[in-house]
Every structure is written in C-alpha cells, then in structure tokens.
Amino acid sequence: MNFIEIDLKKLEHNYHAIRSLLNPKTKMIGVVKANAYGSGVNSIAEKLVALGIDALAVAYTEEGIQLRNQGIKARILVFYPQIENFKLLISANLEPALYSKKSWRAFEKNILDQKKTNYPVHIKYNTGLNRIGFNPADSKWVLNEIKKDAFNIKSVYSHLAASEENRPNEFSQKQLALFNEIMNDHKKNSKSETDFHLLNTSGIFNYPELHLDWVRCGIGLYGFANQPNGE
Ligand SMILES: *Cc1c(COP(=O)(O)O)cnc(C)c1O
Q1: What is the number of the ligand 1 atom nearest to the C-alpha of 59?
Q2: Ligand 1 center to residue 115 CA distance, Å?
Q3: How far is 135 from 117, CA to CA, in rounded Å?
Q4: Greatest CA span in the chain, whole angstroms?
Q5: CA–CA separation, 43 vs 49, rounded Å?
Q6: pTM
Q7: What is the chain's pLDDT, residue by residue, as a tens digit (231 residues)?
Q8: How far is the C-alpha of 102 from the C-alpha of 84, rounded, in Å?
Q9: In testing the pocket of ligand 1, which one of 79, 165, 210 has its CB within 8 Å of the most ligand atoms?
Q10: Cα of 161 to ligand 1 centre, how many Å?
Q11: How far, in Å, from the CA of 214 to the mean position of ligand 1?
C-alpha cells in the first residue's frame, strides 16, 4: 500500500475525540513520523497545526527538516536523532530527545560550538523494553548534567510498552514505579519547570490517570486504533 487517502475531516474528528479525553492542561504531541504513517505527512502536519496541536514529533532529523521546509513553524520533537545530524537539527530549531551519555555529550558539544545556551531538549528513559533511552540507573548522572546552562530540559519521558494490554498489567506497574522515581528526582533537581510523559495512543485510552503533562499521539489520529473512539 503506497497511497492512502486520508480524509482530513476524519483526522479532525479523531483529534477532537482524543482531545476530549484529556485533562485541559495536558498537551498533545502529534506524531507524524514515517510520513504520518505512510499517509502523506504534508497535509496531515499542516492540518494538525491548524487544529491547535501543541507540538509535532518525528523519528529522524531529516523528517523535521522536511516539515520546516514546508513552512511548519510549530515545535517539532525528534525522537531518534542521529548524532551526525545534530548540527542540522539545531539550525532547523528542532528539539531532540537525548537518550544516552554519548548522545548527550555530542549534543552538548554542538550547542557550545554554535554558542547557544538554554537549548530545548527532551530526555528519554528506558524503563521497560530494550528501546533506546537512558537506563534509570543513569539518572544521577543526568541530574547533574541538567544543571548546565547549555540545556533547557523541556520534558522527561518514557514509553509504557504494554499500554494496549489488559489491566492490571505487572510489566506496566514496574515501568510506572521506575518512572515515578525518575519524576520525583527530576522535580527535585530541575532548575526550570519540566514536563513528563509516558503514553502513546493506546495508553491514552487505557491509562487515563497517567496522561500527565503531555501525550504522544500517532496512530489514533489516523483512525487505526482498536478503540471505540478511533473508528
Ligand atoms: C511512534 C511513537 C509514538 C506514537 O505511538 P502511537 O501508538 O502511534 O500513538 C509515541 N511515542 C514514541 C516515542 C514513538 O516513537
């Protein structure tokens, strides 16, 4: 399937349906990675911005640059930025997720080289599956780093891996316990207000008490979620 016609009206409907589930203070990241899941990122991203999405997210720097070239001015997070592209990422004013000591150091060097301070970044922790992210045991190291002027920590996040499974779920409980500790440590040590997030689309439906400050919604916006509101 290389062409899917997405009905923008349906996107609008899904956006409002999901938004209506959220606490008014919870912000929504529209995940448009992989060309909005193969549907043609162009019109989707523009429509989401017009609808009032709080930020967009992509997987790789190139996708973010493509959105900038298209004239999208909204905040754009990059979930899996490659170190080789950090310079480009900064010139396009994209916000990286930093997920390892190596990526952290490399990004710091790029910020300093470009004589920037207070650059908006996001910190990804791995609390579950073998996905990328700082090990929770690295948090002491991270907490020391975030004091530096180079960084403005916009958010700290993880990914609830089994969010589509039935509840109660032991694996999710373990992840949550780890993330709670991370949140507490960051709240105690942050120099500015930091937001926290944990959920993708299925988590939004299944864990309403964990919407926190942001939710990251991809597939639900396109209507493929196996949930009543997703159609
Ligand atoms: C792809 C992705 C999402 C969106 O997940 P959906 O299930 O499509 O809502 C959220 N967070 C991260 C880190 C992702 O990579």
Answers
A1: 15
A2: 32
A3: 26
A4: 50
A5: 10
A6: 0.93
A7: 334 455 888 999 999 999 999 999 999 999 998 877 766 667 899 999 999 999 999 999 999 999 999 999 999 999 999 999 999 999 999 999 999 999 999 999 999 999 999 999 999 999 997 678 999 999 999 999 999 999 999 999 999 989 999 999 999 999 999 999 999 999 999 988 999 999 999 999 999 999 999 999 999 998 765 444 433
A8: 12
A9: 79
A10: 10
A11: 12
| Ligand 1 center to 165 CA (angstroms) | 16
Locus of tokens 């996040």: 157
List ligand 1's pocket residues with C-beta within 6 A.
31, 33, 79, 159, 200-201, 216-220
Residue 218 tokens read as 């991809």
CA distance 29 to 58: 10
How many beta carbons lie within 10 A of that of residue 146, not counting itself? 20
Domains and their CATH numbers in the chain: 8-223 (3.20.20.10)
